[in-house]
Design goal:
By secondary structure, this protein is mainly beta. It has one domain: L,D-transpeptidase catalytic domain-like (Beta Barrel). Helix content is 5%, strand content 32%. The chain has one helix at residues 149-156, and strands spanning 2-5, 12-17, 20-25, 31-32, 42-43, 45-47, 52-54, 68-70, 75-78, 89-91, 98-100, 110-113, 130-133, 145-147, 165-167. The chain has a five-stranded mixed beta sheet with strand order 3-2-1-15-6, with no helix packed on it. The chain has a five-stranded mixed beta sheet with strand order 8-7-12-13-14. It has a three-stranded antiparallel beta sheet with strand order 10-9-11, with no helix packed on it. The longest helix has 8 residues, at 149-156. The chain is globular and about 45 Å long.
């Protein structure tokens, strides 16, 4: 699986897998080297998909070779550089800065955390880098890769923990 910049906007990309290309949104500042927390860049490199998180109240269980977890209202992801849970799943309520995985919009109905800055996480190098559902018009992300829901469901069918996502 390869993700690369395409088009006139720095945040426009394409994800290629098994000979098929899917348009995707990238971080507001495009693909970056030296990713930092809050820079809105999508990190360059090769990563593995860790697992699939999904909203079972909105979608049937997707077909994938990845481990699957259902998102609940108490699921969050820590982005507080001063706490040891940085770039890890946390249970809400949580005292530090975090993202809620249970959202009103549909962007996080499907989330694949990738292996960026997670073995172990280094504070300040970026957190919560996911593949998730794109907003209307493929508007830029905060550093994630975002695809239309139907495209992401197709991509998931070819994913397992040994897959490699190359962001170039």
């Amino acid at each position: 699986m390869v993700v690369k910049h395409t088009g006139p906007d720095i945040h426009s990309g394409v994800l290629e897998i098994n000979g098929t290309s899917y348009p995707c949104a990238l971080g507001k500042t495009g693909i970056v080297d030296g990713k930092r927390e809050g820079d809105s860049g999508t990190p360059r490199g090769a990563f593995k998909p860790r697992e699939l998180w999904y909203r079972s109240d909105r979608l049937p269980k997707p077909e994938t070779g990845l481990p699957i977890r259902e998102i609940t209202p108490t699921d969050g992801w820590a982005d507080d550089v001063n706490l040891p849970e940085y770039n890890r799943h946390v249970t809400l309520p949580y005292q530090g800065s975090h993202e809620s995985l249970w959202r009103e919009d549909h962007v996080y109905d499907l989330i694949i955390p990738i292996s960026y800055n997670d073995e172990p996480p280094v504070a300040g190098l970026g957190s919560a880098i996911f593949i998730h559902i794109a907003r209307e018009g493929y508007t830029p992300t905060a550093g994630c890769i975002a695809l239309k829901q139907e495209d992401l469901l197709k991509v998931l069918q070819s994913c397992d923990p040994e897959a490699i996502i190359t962001i170039e």
